Amino acid sequence: MWTLRFAAALDAWAAVPAADEHERCREWPAAVAHAVSKRWEVEAGPRFSESLLQVLDMLQSSRPQGALADLVTWQTPSPVPVRVSVHPVVQDEATDWAALGFEASPYLGGPFGEGVQYTRRIPEEEAYGVASIDAAVVFDRGDAAVVVRVHACPVDVYVAAAPAIAELIDSCVLTDPTGRPFTTGKSEYRRVDDPDVWPEEGMSARV
Known about the structure:
By secondary structure, the protein is α+β, with helices and mostly antiparallel strands.
């Protein structure tokens, strides 16, 4: 069994409960809605609260199957969060990110060793008229990989959450089913300059 823990407190993040966590499933929407609304109380109102509860219900019903962790954070006064999930992947289940339109660049500062970050800008016409980004960081050991998936979200939300995403990734401690720490070797993309900046960011924050 894969085991994931975090070496730092994740104060800015809320963990989406799994379907079998029945008590947490009942309590989670109200608790998270209260915390988010309190954080953005200047902007929050009835419409904000209603939209937020709808988003929280959607998050619970769409928790990715097989994810070791499914986390969300609200870094802007919007009901729309940044969602990050962590998945172990065996070699024959690997995703061809390039075929899906993602651009690759190196991610050299991760906790597991060197990885590859993939980003894809989603056209506004495919994202309800909002410029959005879809992203992933892949740490490949050869026989298995770990994918840190940053689910599609508006560009401004994504950029605001960039430092928090970097801190989240850096805090990951992962053990594979044999009981050994998960680590990777050198990435084929390490020759690229300025490796720790997402191509779409236009900013210096690393995620």
